[in-house]
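Table S5 (text form). Sequence records supplied for joint modeling of the two-component complex.
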Amino acid sequence: MDEVFKALADASRRSLLDRLHAQNGQTLNDLCDGLAMTRQAVTKHLAILEAANLVTTFKHGREKLHYLNLVPIHQIGERWIKKFERGKLTALSELKRQLEKRDE
Amino acid sequence: MSKPEFVYTTYIETTTEKLWHALMSGDFTERYWFGHRVASDWKPGSAYRFTKQGETTIEGNVLGIDPPKRLVYTWNPCSPETKGERVSRVTFDLEPRGKVIKLTVTHDNLDPAGVTLRNISGGWPMVLASLKSLLETGHALKLDPPTRADEENIHAQA
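The corresponding structure-token record, covering 262 residues in total, follows.
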């Protein structure tokens, strides 16, 4: 679990997860496209995310595809969020999202 | 194989035999899979079915079975809202890695415009986290299936 928190404690790595959330199953080239990071930096961040099991890779023909793996994040959530709190938390995060959207 | 829509991985401290049994035993799936029981004779080509309170929830056919390493089946959610969608495919791969088993679930051939694509993105991480908990601690996670509000929330944040 330490690995998951360490992997998440970096804005560049979180942005890579966001990109996979928007479009799952991307190659290294896809992920580098439009990013202000070097290919070497992306490769390094992906290796850390993969070691933390937040990213899973899949060989598709000659391509290596990267997938967002939410299982460890779900385990973190289940450890501290009780079943009955989930509804309230969803409502709160929705409220925050709506309010912040108005400010944009 | 088409490019899969989802690939999930979890590492479980158990044996391949126990994990294999947990994927195919109704008594097990009922405990970690939102209360759904699976049943089949698990022969190649055979039908399988998940049921909850007597209602069939998911059905399909066994496309391939290689115990205790690989199980492939078609995935057809029995719900009016998924009617007419193309039938997708789920592959379970089990690989021993030292003291743990690496379980990879690959879901492909999903209808890009269908609701199944949206529904399962929240479902698999819960099922796999619960399966891991059941095999490692003897207790499944107490889970509610993802609600429509959860799904919309997840997608709104994308």
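Note: Helices of chain B lie at 16-24, 26-32, 115-137, 148-156.
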